[in-house]
Amino acid sequence: MTPTTARRCLAPLAVVMLVAVGACGSSKKSGGSSTTPVGGAQLPATTLSGSGSSFQDAFDEQVFRDFTSDAQKNVTVNYSPTGSGQGQTDLQGGLVDFAGSDSLVKAADVSKFKGALLYVPIVSAPITISYKLSGVTSLTLSASTIAKIFSSKITTWDAPEIKADNPSASLPSTPIVVVHRSDGSGTTANFTKYLTEAAPSDWTLGTDKVVNWASNTIGAAKNTGVAEKISSTDGAIGYVDFSDAKAANLTFASIKNAAGKVVAPTLAGATAAMASAPVTADVTVSPMNAPGTDAYPITSPTYMIVYENQTDHNKGTALKALLEYVLGAGQAKAESLDFAKLPDALLAKAKAQLDKIQIP
In this structure, what are the phi and psi dihedrals at residue 216, rounded to the nearest 5 degrees? Predict the structure, then answer.
């Protein structure tokens, strides 16, 4: 049983428990059986809680579990994949110790938090354009065509724009069913940011964690919900993170990138996009529509957002140890969980963020 398959056995709001044997009946832990604790000593009993991004959930579940079983046996980490928007809200309200997020906090919301924030990038992955269309197993889409499909300007699969992208394909007249996230989602924010940058004249709905979708579209909660709707609806198309798209056995399109090359969603393509995108002073990066012939243009980084000034010694120490593990041993586990590890230069900057964490 692979780590990705194993997590599908867990409840939708599963927490990462301090146990060796999970609900799926397997006690095997990926990444070896090292018991060397982070920092060289076992920390006191501490529980950390986080919520947010469902995009990073497959990575979090396995890596957090390994941290609590292999490195810090006295620490419990609970994570609820409620969506990036809810994660930010929970951190703002002091309900969690960290937020998982694929999108940045809006400037207007920064003052609502209980102190300065630190973004710690952890991994990246493609956002796939997944679809289900009888008789069509290979598809290429340009940014303009994607923008028109998701804004309901193209409504059937045999539209001239789709035919132009796929001149040799036999496309049916099946109606297109657009599936999107119904919850506040960093995946939505990044997908719509890509459309805003790559097809500004064709995409007019803006970019945010929630946008005003047309009434004839279908909303679903989390990446897993979108994947389920696509897999059960002929003619459906939606945007789904790479891990969940693979777990659901979805078919996904290849995308024409900024260099004009058609590329499939792969971890190598995500790495190429991340490596070519500039890193800001707060260690955030936007690889959407990144330059480079090998770059997959709809690549999303994902972050753990924490407070710079911690208020509890034990929690702050455990949180820093968790982040050290994510940026250390966790990087070696990324590919097996369908995520791309951070490029070396970005990884060094992410680790430097941890030095800014103030623990009482």
Answer: -90, 10
